[in-house]
Amino acid sequence: MKKYTINLLVSLAVVLLLIAGINWFVNPFDIFYSAEIEGFNKYKPALGRYARLSKTYQVRKLKPDYIFLGSSRALAVPAGYLVPDQMNGFNLALASGSTYEQVRMFQHAHAVNKLKRVVIGIDERLQSDVQQEFSEERLAVTPDGAAKVGWSRDDMQDITAGLISFDALQASLKTIKKQPHVKIEEYLRQDKVKRVFNAGGHRQMFWNMEASILHLFKGAGSDSCYQHGDKDENDDTKARYYFQAMLERAYTDNIDFYVFFSPVHARIYETWCIGGMWGQIENTKRDIVAMVEEIAKRFDKKPFPVWDFSGYNSVTTEPVPEKGDRKSLMLGYWEGSHYSRVTAGLVLERMFGGNAAVPDDFGVLLTGENIDEHLRNIYQQHVEYAASNPRVIEEIGSLVRN
Amino acid sequence: MTWLVLASLFFYGWWNPAYLLLIIGSMLFNYYTGVQLSYRQNRLFLGIAIALNLALLGYFKYANFFVENISDLAGLGWNIEHIVLPLAISFFTFQQIAYLVDAYRRETSEYNFLHYALFVSFFPQLISGPIVHHKEMLPQFIRETARFIEYRHLAIGISVFILGLFKKVVVADSLAPYSIEAFNAVAAGEMLTFFEAWKGALAYTFQLYFDFSGYSDMAIGMAMLFGIRLPLNFDSPYKANSVIEFWQRWHITLSRFLRDYLYIPLGGNRKGQKRRYLNLMITMLLGGLWHGAEWTFVLWGGLHGLYLVINHGWRRIKELSGIAHSHVIFNTASRLLTFFAVVVAWVFFRAEDFSAAILILKSMLAYGGVVWPADARGQLGIFANTLSSMGLEFGYPGQFNGLANVVGMLVILLFVFTVPNVQQLMNRYQVAINPPSASTLAWAPDLRWGLLIGFMALLSILRLGHMSEFLYFQF
Q1: ipTM summary value
Q2: Is the whole-model pTM more than 0.80?
Q3: I need a labelling partner for B118 at 20 to 30 A (CA). Which of A72, A117, B264, B346 fits?
């Protein structure tokens, strides 16, 4: 019995230690402080699936003072692009990240290291829902801003499961296996080629996204847009409360804060139009501009810049490859909702004035004075776009009918 | 012994220190009352003591339930704050009521408070049972002079614990998503297709067994580390050939408690057949309510009460008519019938509410159609057309994936019908009190079992840690 017990316990301990050692060293979720070795564990393919976990810990490690916030659309923003020398940039965007989750990430990053600059990409509306993978307990501060004391249950769970779990072991093995053997830019390009091809080409990807938007918003099937409507007010008071609190904090702590509306493709605007969401989009833009100006006034400061890159401009009207074409790659988009790193680079160039050429019609700085005119312009551009692109309207319309 | 009591109380307090006062207060009250009752038999005194215990349980476990129901019935609009149920209160209340009754019957010995405290709070079984009886535990505590490390206890205890852990973490937790999916769907008012519904109901049937019996094995194994034997709680219940037998194999210590402290005091079978059936129904309805403050639990208990009445009635008919069946076909049919009756009852046990239970039962009766995955039509080979003409449809029946699911469920069914349970494997070492009969396959402290147990431990530990992933990360 003695031999059996000792052999069993010692062997189990050795194997578990070995697994913990592998997971610590490979560090697939980037939650430990182990070395990054090119060709072994530098590229971490698991980060996408575990972003809410990984990014929280990466913030602790990298201590950025310049962050990008947003949903999956903003994931394209290159964190190191046009970052001033004295700043340390990090992309904190989360796939399907709600406004509330973004604000919580902002609070976390600001608690870890005082932020100097924040850029946030806004989608259709402010929302407060959280994904199941999101953990309040992991973050450095509570929603009210109080510092967390000691280790939370989730911290312990992250560390133990990060060392000893099937998920971690699988992710470690995948990390070792999936290391790119070419430069990361080339790897990402090849990845895009593969993903676009596997998805059936850009046109198919556009359709899928448009269908899912129409499904999500229960496509109204209307073929006329709700111009300057006041339909569907944003009643997510929690999201608005936290967004306002973030702006107030930024003014209080002198953080450079930039807001931009994502450069979705013109076809997405047409989808919103057909889905009856036009009024909602306009309301969100008006709401954000008014909110920024109102808070600035209260703090006696200049309003933070609010840029709109959506609408109908030379970037967002990029032609989409024909149906069945799985090989042509778009420069600025994956599909209508998700823009590419190139487009993200142009956004930064426009906002921060880099050296690259940016089309003149890409990006409008919004104020309380020009917002109505700007929205009227977009509507007019929509009318013209719809008239000159009847096939696009027919394609999206058929999604509603089907 | 003192350190075991302290460890148990620490374990309990870890969850919520405030409730430590509750369990300590309950132990002091019942110990003192028990001592008094054993000296001075006073029925009123016993009644008050039991009522106080039940009042405590009632307040924490059933106050919300009763207030809501009375309020709904009378349209009073009452609303009370949700009361958090203290951990293990259902278990330690029952154990102490048994102690009080036995003290009154002068069936208790003179225990000291430390031993009594350990009997109530012994951490391996405190949370999920088995429900222990003072007569089987206190003599062990008094006698036990175990050294801290005794390799025999460690080897057996660890092995049983790991087998239980594996049942819980690897088997039960892997089945959970299937039952959650089906029962969530019906809770949302969705009618399921035939196979989806059966997959959900069977997954829950197996999940509950592996989960609860796994916990019991873990408790028995952990107690064995200290040289303490706990009573057997599960004995392959799905092998039962009748519902009467099912209750002799499922949550045995609860059945025992309900029999000795509710059914028999109600009169048991001593007051005629009608009264016997009534007593059975009362016992099972209250047994159902013990599981939780929901009408679905009461219904589940009532259904089992009805099964037992039918089962006893059938036995009586057999006795009177002199029919005796022991044919293998009859036994197999009895086992299957028992199993399906139990599955139907579990549907009420698990469902969110009555209408969800009815919806899943209707789905199991093919009200939602019998649909096979269209992309798995090939699995049916030459039978596809015949089955189609008989009403089988081809489509997209949720998460039901065809043959793999059918085979999977049949394999588990065959497993629970035939494979010996953990306590049978350990029979030679008498790990539990009243262990079941030995199986041909038996555990031994050798290399073969060491490797198997070690592998199961590894799988279980790796399954314990879980990182939540976001599947929609690529947009």
Answers
A1: 0.85
A2: yes
A3: B264
